[in-house]
Structure formats: structure tokens, C-alpha cells
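Hey, resending since the last one bounced:
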Amino acid sequence: MSHTGPVAIADSTRSTRIALAACLLFGLVMRLLFTITLPGTSGDSATYEALAWNLASHFEYSTSPEPPYRASFDRTPGYPVFMAAIFSLAGHSQVAVRVAQALLDTLTVFVIYLLARRACRIASPVLAPGLAAVLPFTAIYAAYLLSEALATFASAVTLLIAIAALGSDRWSRFLATGLCLGILVLIRPDFALLPVAAVFYFAITLSTARRRTLLPIALISIGCLARAFTLGFAHGTRTYPNATVVSGPMRPSNGIVSPSRTQRSTPRANDCAC
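The C-alpha cells again:
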């Protein structure tokens, strides 16, 4: 005899929970195995680690190995702050960062389940988190000292809050969306255009009466973009004070012709040990 009504719903809910728990467990085990067997670094990892350790041990945002700790504009502070929080609890441990990222990336799988449950009407909402749990191309980043795992989690949470804001009249949810977008920009500058896209999307999809709730997210988005561009400009002026920006066929990949070694090593009168 087939179950119908509340019994069928209860069976479906129970099976969904079991499947979700299996996805989370498998995803966590796979990510922890990656951290053990395939720990990795890249050129950016050393910079992130230096910034994080100086933040945790000296409260200075700098890559300098010893005093004076000159302020650094090489990277936005989102990921170094995340690493610094782990260093302050577990000491200068790369393993602790990788384990924390494995846990965070597994939590991303759960957030994807919440997103699928909001969007899903027919298919099981476990399919999306199942794919996210087993996909090795994203899970491998938990084993690297890079910002990808943190940025993926933050973007998933931002999307979840933005969807909740679209279905609500509470301006605080739009404010929370803007704050999350700001955090994304501080983690990875690649997301700098996402706030602009979000504002345009909300402006098109919301009714006229509700467009007044765009003000908080619009203001925060402008602030995030201004902050990101300020960081980039400061980095360029401090690192290449005598550089020339060029264009055309001879333009290098970053658009900057670095000064000579003599110019770069000569201290400037307005330099300060920040």
C-alpha cells in the first residue's frame, strides 16, 4: 500500500535528510583527504600567509618579515583576516587553515542545498548539493592557501540572502545583501562588479513601490566599489611610484612599465613606516 498525505511527506523529508547527511559527510571526508594528500600553495599563498601572520601576531597589515611593518596593498584584506583569525586560535599552522577551509567548503554544500530548496519545485533539492559535494575541481581548493574556498562560501550565502530579500518587504534584508556583497569584494576584487549587477537586477524585478528599498544596497555597493578602487590605486602608486601606464601593441599584461631597479630601491621622502 502506497503512503499518501502526511505519511508520504514525512517519508520524503526523512529520506531527504538522510541523503543530505550523506552528501555532507562524503564532501567533508573528500576535502579532508585533499588537505592531507594534496596540500598546495601558489605564488599568492606566501603573501596571504605573511599578511595573516602579521595581523595575528603584530596587528599590522604588512608582508614585512620584521619591523618596521610597512602597510601593504598587495591583497584585499578579506582572506588574510580569515587566516589571521585561525592563526590567533591555532598558532602559525597551515594545516589548521586547510582544515577550516574543508569545514567551510562543506558548509557551502549545505548552503547550496538551501538554495536548491528555495528554487526547486519538482526535482529533489539534494541533487545540487550532491554535485557540489563530489565535484573535485572546486573541493580541491580547500587544500590550498587561497581565497577560493572562502569566496565560494561567501558568494553562496550572499545569493541566499539576496533571494530572501526579493521575497520580502524588509529593507534590512537588502541591507544584509549589500553587506555580503561588500565582504565579497574584500575577499576577492573580482566581485567588484557584482554589486552593480545586483542593483540593476533588483531595479528591474522589483515593483515601483518596493524600489525604495534599493537605497541601502545601492549605497553599500557604491562604497564597496570605491573601497576596491581605492585599494587598487593605493597599491599602484605605492608599488610603482614612477611607473608609466601605456597602451597599444607594446602594452604589458598589467598596463604598467615598472621603473628601473635604481628608482625602485631609492627611498622617497614621503615614505612612512606604517
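Residues 171-274 form one domain.

Sorry for the duplicate.
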